[in-house]
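Exercise 3.2. Students should predict the tertiary structure of the chain below and write it as structure tokens, then compare their answer with the key that follows.

Predict this chain's 3D structure.
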Amino acid sequence: MSKLTLGTHPFLLGFDQLERLVERTAKTENGYPPYNIEHVTENAFRITLAVAGFAEADLSITVEDRQLVVRGRQAAEDDERIFLHRGIASRQFQRTFLLADGVEVAGAALTNGLLHIDLTRAVPETVVQTIRIDKG
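Answer key:
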């Protein structure tokens, strides 16, 4: 008996990329920085990342091939500082989120060490298309 995968189900025509996208997204999970995803309204979402210690100039947000990419890189630190204990992470990071078709970035704000990224989903119009049957 063969295993029926999501991309090969007969009712899901054209969704063969979905399984690959899920696998690709799962591989990029590393846990830093921590984040929340909120469902704000029916068609709006908010991603909040904990980026304490990062200035606005240290962060970049881009959309690349339907992926929201958040990168953080702090400037080189002063080497003359001597730490007795160093528990605050200051490493660079890259966090990606796969965006569905119709989801767009509405804006971003950095407040109290939290980076808020607001997303909106466009409501598609219902389209009814009549297909003509040719005599053949």
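Discussion points: The chain has two domains: 1-30, 33-121. The mean pLDDT is 85.
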